[in-house]
Amino acid sequence: MMRRVSTLIALLALVAPLAGQSRPDADINAKIRQEENARSKIMHTLHVLTDVYGPRVTGSPSLKAAGEWAIKEMASWGFSNGHLEPWDFGHPGWVNERLTAHIVAPVKDALVAEVLAWTPGTNGVIAAQAYQLSLPDRPTPAELTAFLDSAKDKVKGRIVLAGTHVFVPVNFDPPAKRRPDDQVRTQYDPNNPNAGQFGRGRGGRGDQPPPPMTANEINRRVDEFLVANGARLRVNDAGREHGQIIAFSNRTYDLAKAVPTVVLRNEDYGRIARILADGTPVELEADIVNKVYPEGRTAYNTIAEIPGTDKKDEVVMLGGHLDSWHSATGATDNAIGCATMMEAARILKAIGVTPRRTIRVALWSGEEEGILGSQAYVREHFGSFESQKKEYATLVGYLNIDSGTGRARGASVFGPPSAATIVREALAPFADLGVVGAVATTSRNVGGTDSTAFNNAGLPGIGFGQDPIEYNSHTHHTNLDTYERIVEDDVKASAIEIAATLYRLAMRDEMLPRLPAAQMPPLPKPSTAQ
Fold it and tell me: Model confidence at 145, in pLDDT bands (50, 70, 90)?
């Protein structure tokens, strides 16, 4: 009897640990939820990146400082190997330090504007008569040349409104802030032959041939004309509702090839244009202080890790782009993406996960100028499917989020359907948070966000799709992109989902499946668009 009891006790001793491990992922998922809901740091991270360091233009001191702070913060969480990894941006850094703009006659009022990046300042306060340069619609090169020649004597010493006023109608059918569940399920349904197609461009208008000149070419010609003929300031119409302004950059990055340039809110631009149309002179005043940083030619990606154990040479990466445009503090695009990915990795560290594979957080620069920083990193570390470096074989996947404050609803995974299945299974326990699944993609086109730099190399880029909230309608690249536009519950949900996916990829026995050589799509042809 005693022998039988001893045997039974021995068997129970063996079985008990196995029973405790019967649902390890479920236990981890519960801990992930608890950590994020009770001790989240995501909004604090967002606050520092936006309120303290934003805006964060590539090549600027604020972007580098934000990366240095992120390294220190992740080190305080127990991360290691934090460093800034340089890459060649090739352009100076640029910062707008001051901008005031006013109409001083026939009335006096402040104007709302943003400076175009990589344009010069005014070297003090300037005041001048306004002139509206009403450019022809869809001109040929010869037509544009003739028009500009006719206006040479009208722009010297003037503040020039470049283009006619854009009429922005009242929107009686604003876009929904959340996507319907059935639409999202269709997008991420692996059995749907059109899965993953939502939101892709549908091409140009079918009722009109392509213009004889691109918008970029027209813009370059106008800049050259204004420089050559002594204009003092260029003013562009923002062309958006409710005071929204998007101000990108002088694409040449050469301050000598543009006059000081601002983008004026549509409402102010329209007011000035209407007064001019009455035949009444308008006098404007502006003071713009911009500073150039030659050392910005070297930009930096921000890297930190949680070291792995038995599979430490294999790496799971996650991240977003830390750089932003300068019109606001870059909250939805994409400080919150960086904060979410930092948080997902922090959660695992905080709950005591010892990952088998190394987890590497990457906060990119140069995304806004063409996904440059992540492409530089991929070239340096991994190469491409056609020209593989040693680390190419050891990357499990790269997880990316970059579409604002909306919670993650699904993922697109570069690779075979079996790779998407693994991600889908990791997300399945979080259906209550609105996530529905994952689908495979085989597109190697670079565009939109940093996961495509990995896709382009034939590596498993995993891009998360999100609810729109106010992203495309209000905050994306605009002067409204601030901390206040973040929905805390949504970003916490995304951090939970991504932490669980990260855990699965860091702990499973096998890497994510990849496309075999026979199924790898060829590299896309280089774009010739200007």
Answer: very high
pTM exceeds 0.90 for this model = yes
DSSP 193: T
Q: What is the pLDDT of residues 115-129, one digit of tens each?
A: 999 999 999 999 999
Of 218, 211, 254, 261, nearest to 238 (Cα)? 261
Q: Beta-carbon neighbour count of residue 111 at 10 Å?
A: 21
Residue 300, strand partner residues: 86
* Beta bridge partners of residue 319, listed in sequence order: 362, 400
Number of Cβ within 10 Å of residue 262's Cβ equals 25
Secondary-structure percent of the chain, ordered helix, strand, coil, rounded to 5: 40, 20, 40
In a 3-state reduction of DSSP, which class is residue 387? coil
- Per-residue confidence (pLDDT) for residue 191, from 0 to 100: 87
Are 331 and 486 contacting, i.e. CB atoms less than 8 angstroms apart?
yes
Report whether pLDDT(9) > 50. no
Name which of 305, 136, 315 is nearest 221 in CA terms.
136
For the chain, give the longest Cα–Cα distance.
112
Nearest-angstrom CA–CA distance, 365 and 373: 5
pLDDT of residue 12: 41
- C-alpha of 79 from chain center: 24
**286-323 per-position pLDDT tens digit:** 999 999 999 999 999 999 999 999 999 999 999 999 99
Closest among 465, 412, 426 to 179, alpha carbons compared: 465
What b/e sequence results for 278-289 when a residue is b if at least 16 CB atoms lie within 10 Å of its CB, and e otherwise?
A: eeeebebbbbbe
Q: What is the DSSP letter of 371?
A: S
**H-helix or E-strand containing 303?**
strand 298-306
Residue 412's region, left for phi above 0, alpha for psi from -120 to 50, else beta, is: beta
> What whole-number distance in Å separates Cα of residue 187 and Cα of residue 409?
10
What's the pLDDT tens digit per position in 407-418? Answer: 999 999 999 999
Distance CA 181, CA 417 (A): 22
Average pLDDT over residues 168-176: 94
Count the residues in the chain: 530
Residue holding tokens 């990055």?
253
CA–CA separation, 217 and 213 (whole Å): 6
Q: What would the 3-class secondary structure string for 323-360 be?
A: CCCCCCCCHHHHHHHHHHHHHHHHHHHHCCCCCCEEEE
pLDDT in tens, 425-445: 999 999 999 999 999 999 999
**What does the buried/exposed string (b/e) look like for 404-438 if buried means 16 or more CB atoms within 10 Å of the residue's CB?**
bbbbbbbbbbbbbeebbbbbbebbebbeebbbbbb
For residue 194, give both structure tokens: 């059109």
